[in-house]
From TrEMBL, chain A:
<feature type="domain" description="Dehydrogenase E1 component">
    <location>
        <begin position="50"/>
        <end position="338"/>
    </location>
</feature>
<comment type="similarity">
    <text>Belongs to the BCKDHA family.</text>
</comment>
<dbReference type="Pfam" id="PF00676">
    <property type="entry name" value="E1_dh"/>
</dbReference>
<comment type="function">
    <text>The branched-chain alpha-keto dehydrogenase complex catalyzes the overall conversion of alpha-keto acids to acyl-CoA and CO(2). It contains multiple copies of three enzymatic components: branched-chain alpha-keto acid decarboxylase (E1), lipoamide acyltransferase (E2) and lipoamide dehydrogenase (E3).</text>
</comment>
<keyword id="KW-0786">Thiamine pyrophosphate</keyword>
<dbReference type="GO" id="GO:0003863">
    <property type="term" value="F:branched-chain 2-oxo acid dehydrogenase activity"/>
</dbReference>
<dbReference type="InterPro" id="IPR050771">
    <property type="entry name" value="Alpha-ketoacid_DH_E1_comp"/>
</dbReference>
<dbReference type="InterPro" id="IPR029061">
    <property type="entry name" value="THDP-binding"/>
</dbReference>
<dbReference type="GO" id="GO:0009083">
    <property type="term" value="P:branched-chain amino acid catabolic process"/>
</dbReference>
UniProtKB/TrEMBL annotation, chain B:
<protein>
    <submittedName>
        <fullName>Alpha-ketoacid dehydrogenase subunit beta</fullName>
    </submittedName>
</protein>
<dbReference type="InterPro" id="IPR033248">
    <property type="entry name" value="Transketolase_C"/>
</dbReference>
<keyword id="KW-0560">Oxidoreductase</keyword>
<dbReference type="InterPro" id="IPR029061">
    <property type="entry name" value="THDP-binding"/>
</dbReference>
<dbReference type="InterPro" id="IPR005475">
    <property type="entry name" value="Transketolase-like_Pyr-bd"/>
</dbReference>
<dbReference type="Pfam" id="PF02779">
    <property type="entry name" value="Transket_pyr"/>
</dbReference>
<keyword id="KW-0786">Thiamine pyrophosphate</keyword>
<feature type="domain" description="Transketolase-like pyrimidine-binding">
    <location>
        <begin position="4"/>
        <end position="179"/>
    </location>
</feature>
<dbReference type="GO" id="GO:0016491">
    <property type="term" value="F:oxidoreductase activity"/>
</dbReference>
Length: 367, 325
């Protein structure tokens, strides 16, 4: 045998990342790094992007308040992820399908559910899921939405429905699930129009991104399934929107799936149920991300153009929060569920035993 | 009317639902050109095209996730899990997603999926190919579980399953695939998804069985008839739901019951039937409930099946024991 190894595995390992560097339009200092794309946005567009992020942050703050008051069920905080969530979802059209995960409630509302419905979903009330939007309710099983999205994409393709794709979200932890790979692989094999969005917010509850995988990027996980993928600065709403829009345009032209990894950060806890980020990360680690805040960045751009002011933002926040208070009042007014109704919606045609059980509960409930 | 095997009856049903409803889709591992590893989907891709009958990548959760998504976009999916042992891979999509769809959305969104899968011992397969796994699925609210015991029922139950707007797990017995032939009417007919079938009428004792064990129970009934013992045999046909009324009516007449299953005894369909009788009809009985089931070991594949699966002789022994109580 020759001394030279037949393969230099170490060289291959050091050259694994085949994804180009994250796409940005505005950098951390709010400087335009892609003038041509930046100029394609009107002043109104820029204001609209900012308003959406202000809305999402206000929704988060108000919902956390409701949660502390014991008025919510499960809630997954979204602070820090406004650019990633609003930027991508703004590229959706009404006829597109959304398969959100549990931290994607703002996108679900953006796609047509009401805030009242979102609050009812959080409380486990069925009325919260009866939205007309082409969306599933937020998926709790991590990765499951990716597997289902492949079917939605194939369904769209088989129906010949034009100008329609599926959007689905998971997180950095979600990319470790087998379902994420199966979903992407199926969508690739069938060339189904699905936009897979990985919101890499750094943590799966407490487990950091570095412990999820040895892969240099999460975006490259799509490459093995034959799917083009990119990393995007997830704190830059203009980049998130522009890339999602470009991906959508590419797919509606008859092409197969795309994957986007947005690099973002979860400022708060995994859920409102009480886990404490101080147990697994330091202030010093958090600060650089807080400095990249998507709202700070857009605020500076808009203020420089004379399109924004603190008063305007405060006024908007007040308006939004007032609407959320109205929404939770509406949720409070929805009658409580009945066990007989739960039984009735288990099967379309109740089984003989279930008919007896329904009758038993109806008798109890009518007392 | 023609003599057809269990497999041919299933192919017949699939042909009819593909013809009847342009939204039906058949997919899974090797179901296209190859016609399935048992030839159950043979000829269907040629007849209906690759758009309607197609092969998928090899991943059960992916196949069932595909079914969930296709169902949401207005299609009526009929996925195949090549062997039931592989269904563990798809447990979340079946139990965690499809079965919950109607409950979650109150019918605004549904999951009209019929999952076909072969199971059942006696053909000496590899491991994880023949296990009777119905016990896992009968505990899933929102899912129907269908287990035909003969070609006639297989066709009628499969058509009913596909037409049902809720998810159905349709279990096809491997041992029966080619070992049985029935007169099968041409064209469409249905068998209800919530009604047991009295396959032998009798007065002295009731045997409740399903799947391949129904045929074992019939053998016992025929043999005991020669000794002037009159055995009633009930074929459950569906194990979720279980048609308790037909069982209760029968034991009111016979006062004795033996419940037979090919699956392990623990926490299964037989236990559910025994519990329903104990709760609601125990006073009809004048002897203890008899049970015949497989041992509570791990399923022994291949030749190990021969000493493990309960068949007619074991049923006969238990029937005699209960008769002579």
């Amino acid at each position: 045998m020759a001394n030279k190894p037949i393969v230099d595995f170490e060289a291959i390992k050091n050259n694994l990342s085949n994804v180009s560097k994250p796409i940005q339009i505005l950098n951390e200092n709010a400087e335009v790094v892609d003038q041509e794309i930046f100029d394609s946005f009107s002043d109104d567009d820029l204001v609209e992007f900012m308003k959406k992020m202000v809305w999402e942050r206000a929704l988060h703050e108000q919902t956390m308040n409701f949660s502390r008051q014991g008025r919510m069920g499960f809630y997954a905080p979204t602070e820090g992820e406004e650019a990633s969530e609003m930027g991508t979802v703004l590229a959706m059209k009404t006829n597109d399908y959304l398969l959100p995960a549990y931290r994607d409630v703002p996108q679900l509302i953006q796609h047509g559910a009401t805030v009242t419905e979102a609050y009812l979903w959080s409380r486990g009330h069925v009325v919260g899921n009866k939205f007309k939007a082409r969306s599933l309710m937020p998926q709790i099983i991590i990765g499951a939405a990716y597997a289902e999205a492949a079917g939605v994409g194939l369904g769209i393709k088989k129906s010949g429905e034009e100008d329609t794709i599926a959007f689905t979200y998971t997180g950095d932890g979600g990319t470790s699930q087998g379902d994420s790979y199966e979903g992407m692989n199926f969508a690739g094999a069938f060339q189904a129009p699905v936009l897979f969005i990985v919101q890499n917010n750094g943590f799966a509850i407490s487990t950091p991104r570095a412990k999820q995988t040895a892969a240099p990027t999460l975006a490259q996980k799509a490459v093995a399934a034959g799917i083009p993928s990119v990393q995007v600065d997830g704190m830059d709403i203009l980049a998130c929107y522009a890339v999602a829009k470009a991906a959508r345009d590419y797919m509606v032209a008859g092409n197969g799936p795309v994957m986007i990894e947005t690099l973002t950060y979860r400022y708060g806890a995994h859920s409102s149920a009480g886990d404490d980020p101080k147990r697994y990360r330091t202030k010093a680690e958090e600060q650089p991300w807080f400095d990249k805040d998507p709202l700070i960045r857009m605020r500076k751009v808009l203020e420089d153009k004379g399109l924004w002011s603190e008063e305007k933002e405060d006024q908007l926040v007040d308006e939004y929060k007032a609407s959320f208070k109205e929404a939770i009042k509406e949720a409070d007014a929805v009658p409580a569920e009945k066990v007989s109704d739960m039984l009735k919606r288990t099967f379309e045609i109740p089984t003989p035993e279930m008919k007896k059980e329904i009758a038993k509960f109806e008798a109890k409930e009518s007392k | 009317m023609a003599k057809k095997t269990y497999i041919q009856a299933i192919t017949d049903a699939l042909d009819i639902v593909l013809e009847d409803d342009p939204k039906t889709l058949i997919f899974g591992e090797d179901v296209g050109k190859n016609g399935g590893v048992f030839r159950t989907t043979q000829g269907l891709q040629d007849k209906y095209g690759e758009e309607r009958v197609f092969d998928t990548p090899l991943a059960e959760s992916g196949i069932l996730g595909l079914a969930t998504g296709l169902g949401l976009t207005g299609w009526r999916p009929i996925p195949e899990i090549q062997f039931m042992g592989f269904s563990f891979e798809a447990m979340d999509q079946i139990a965690g997603q499809e079965a919950r769809m109607r409950f979650r959305f109150d019918g605004v969104k549904t999951s009209p999926v019929t999952i076909r899968t072969p199971y059942g011992g006696g053909t000496h397969t590899a491991e994880m190919h023949a296990d009777n796994l119905e016990n896992f699925f009968t505990g899933v609210p929102g899912l129907r579980v269908v287990m035909p015991s003969n070609p006639y029922d297989a066709k009628g139950l499969l058509i009913s399953s596909v037409e049902n707007n809720d998810p159905v797990l349709f279990m096809e017995n491997l041992k029966l695939y080619r070992s049985m032939k029935d007169d099968i009417p041409d064209g469409k007919y249905t068998v209800p998804l919530d009604k047991a079938n009295v396959v032998r009428e009798g007065n002295d004792i009731t045997i409740v069985a399903y799947g391949a064990e129904v045929n074992e129970a019939i053998k016992v009934a025929d043999k005991l008839a020669e000794k002037n013992v009159s055995v009633e045999v009930i074929d459950l046909r569906t194990v979720s739901p279980i048609d308790n009324e037909t069982i209760f009516k029968s034991i009111e007449k016979t006062h004795k019951v033996v419940i037979v299953q090919e699956a392990q005894k623990m926490a299964g369909v037989g236990a559910q039937v025994a519990s329903a009788i104990a709760e609601e009809a125990v006073l009809s009985l004048d002897a203890p409930i008899g049970r015949v089931a497989a041992p509570n070991s791990v399923y022994p594949f291949a030749l190990g099946e021969d000493i493990w699966i309960p068949r007619a002789d074991e049923i006969e022994e238990k029937v005699n024991e209960i008769l002579n109580y």
